[in-house]
Amino acid sequence: xxxxxxxxxxxxxxxxxxxxxxxxxxxxxxxxxxxxxxxxxxxxxxxxxxxxxxxxxxxxxxxxxxxxxxxxxxxxxxxxxxxxxxxxxxxxxxxxxxxxxxxxxxxxxxxxxxxxxxxxxxxxxxxxxxxxxxxxxxxxxxxxxxxxxxxxxxxxxxxxxxxxxxxxxxxxxxxxxxxxxxxxxxxxxxxxxxxxxxxxxxxxxxxxxxxxxxxxxxxxxxxxxxxxxxxxxxxxxxxxxxxxxxxxxxxxxxxxxxxxxxxxxxxxxxxxxxxxxxx
Length: 279
Hints:
Distance between the termini: 39 Å
Number of domains: 1
Helix content: 10-25%
CATH topology: Double-stranded beta-helix
Shape: globular
Order of helices and strands: EEHHEHEEEHHEHHEEEEHEEEE
CATH superfamily: Clavaminate synthase-like
Radius of gyration: 18 Å
CATH class: Alpha Beta
Strand content: 15-25%
Strand order of the largest sheet: 1-2-3-13-5-15-4
Number of helices: 8
Number of strands: 15
Largest sheet: 7 strands, mixed
Structural class: alpha+beta
């Protein structure tokens, strides 16, 4: 075997032991992809990839995302930082990343996977947590699964960001409203045959349901999904490479000092299937 893996938590996350040479060769990309979808999050330590190496690895794993509604960055590179000089386009949105979310829920085909390497770390805080949305669906009672399979949920940027900044200005709220609303099935029936919950703070409401009932349902599902048994918490070290399956997980960053200069470099893979409901 060119690599070995160790489970980080019973329901989510594996650490890969692999050399940089083997990783960048692309020879093991299919096996790594399969493990990624199975475990949700993969962690590799002490690789110290350059941007070019990280970009190259991303391209061995799938179709590199160069731009969505807005340009992704330098040939797919996104600098995840609060520093508006480093990322003038997106830094103003990153405060929302401290709430549980999936990326790209306002798109018909959300991104497949994302990979991060740290460039500057905060002295305290800034760990990243992940939830396995496959496992959270699998553990629901069968009767509830049948009900949830029939529901659609509307996702908006306002719903994603307002809870993190309720004192926003009218101009900020207006900017969030420029992003499209998107209705997705609450349960994703993947081409693989597996099913996962499509949960995110961006979930505004369940289509056609009374607002009070909708809020109660989404709040209860979020509580269920974020129980410790479904969560992996990653404590960053320089040299890390972390990637996650965005179609089957949620994530959030834990609070840290915004003046710390914390910065991670991100590459994302384009989605490969729309969110699908039961046939």
